[in-house]
Amino acid sequence: MSSALERLKKITSQISSYELARKENLTKLQKLFSTIGIDKKIHNFSDIFKFKAINLSGVSLSEENLGEIKEGKYLQILAISYDKDAKVKSKNISLAYFGRVENVDEKLREQVVEFVIRFRFEKSFMNLEHYHTMLGKFANTNE
Fold first, then answer.
1. What is the mean pLDDT of the chain?
2. Residues pairing with 54 in the sheet
3. 132 within 8 A of 86, measured Cβ to Cβ
4. 10 Å Cβ neighbour count for 54?
5. Which residues pair with residue 57 across a beta bridge?
6. How many CB atoms are closer than 10 A to CB 108?
7. What confidence tens digit (pLDDT) does each residue in 11-28 have?
8. Which residues in 4-22 are b (16+ Cβ under 10 Å) and which e?
9. Are 36 and 86 in contact (CB under 8 A)?
């Protein structure tokens, strides 16, 4: 019995930790939204989540070399929109352009990378909630 109770406590603690991290992430993401100038292109913060994804050019987002610049490239935040009814379904939209990556202030580069990672973190929670809701539709159909 105590083993089950310990597992429940551990799971509850983990869920609570994720929710706290998510709340803190959203606060920092919204601040970065203004700090790096995304608010000039997208006026309402919540509208960034309408995009399918947000990518970055000019700087690596891979875990092994996160933030490493790609010489000769341009630092740009790109959003991917998706319209299932359009002739061209996927479309890249520039949210912010900062110029040649090697000329961009290091602090700004770090904020841009942080913005993209924080966006992806929140978007992953939204996807999890979406698929959890979809799975709920199967709860009683496969018994």
1. 89
2. 79
3. no
4. 20
5. 76
6. 14
7. 788 777 888 899 999 999
8. eeeeeeeeeeeeeeeeeee
9. no
Model-level pTM? 0.83
d(CA 97, CA 120): 19
Q: Give all strands of the β-sheet with 53-57 in edge-to-edge order.
A: 53-57, 74-82, 90-100
Q: How far is CA 99 from CA 70, 74, 134, 141, in A?
A: 12, 5, 42, 54
Residues of the chain with pLDDT under 70: 1, 140-143
Which token pair is 43? 């006026």
Q: Chain-centre distance of CA 118, in angstroms?
A: 5
Rounded CA-CA distance 32/116 in Å is: 10
Q: Give the Cα separation of 11 and 5 in Å (integer).
A: 10
